[in-house]
Each structure stands twice: as C-alpha cells, then as structure tokens.
Design goal:
By secondary structure, this protein is α+β, with helices and mostly antiparallel strands. The protein has one domain. The protein contains 1 helix and 2 strands. The longest helix has 27 residues. It starts with 7 loop residues before the first strand and ends with a helix. The relative contact order is 0.13.
C-alpha cells in the first residue's frame, strides 16, 4: 500500500477480516524511532509473496465471475 508518510506501521485489521471501503487497515506512527536494521527479504518470503499474488489473482477472477452471474 502506498503511503504519504514514513513511520512504523501497526496493523489494525487481521487476515480474513472483512474491511469496508475506506476502513482502517493499519496506522502509521510518524513519531516512532526507526528500527536499527531494515527487514531482509529471504527467498522464502519471496516465494510466499509470489504465492500470495497468485491467490489474490485467483480470488479476483472468482469475484469477476460472481459479478457476471448477479
């Protein structure tokens, strides 16, 4: 998700939650100190990310089919 500010993100919504359009997913603490180390992308997280993208695409295809049938 793009952001207009930098800071520490705290998630409010959990995976599987139904979020209304415009609903709060997370908030950014712009006054928080930066972490000492940045996150390192590991091969496993890359695989998880690719798998998640495919799951999202599959879900989007299902929603398009559902919308057509309504």
């Amino acid at each position: 998700m793009p952001s207009e500010v930098a800071g520490v993100i705290t998630r409010v919504a959990k995976e599987g939650d139904d979020i209304k359009i415009g609903g709060l997913v997370a908030y950014i603490d712009t006054d928080a100190a930066a972490p000492e180390k940045s996150a390192v992308v590991t091969p496993q997280s890359t695989v998880d990310s690719s798998q998640k993208k495919e799951e999202v695409k599959a879900e989007e295809r299902k929603m398009k089919l559902i919308k057509r049938n309504i």
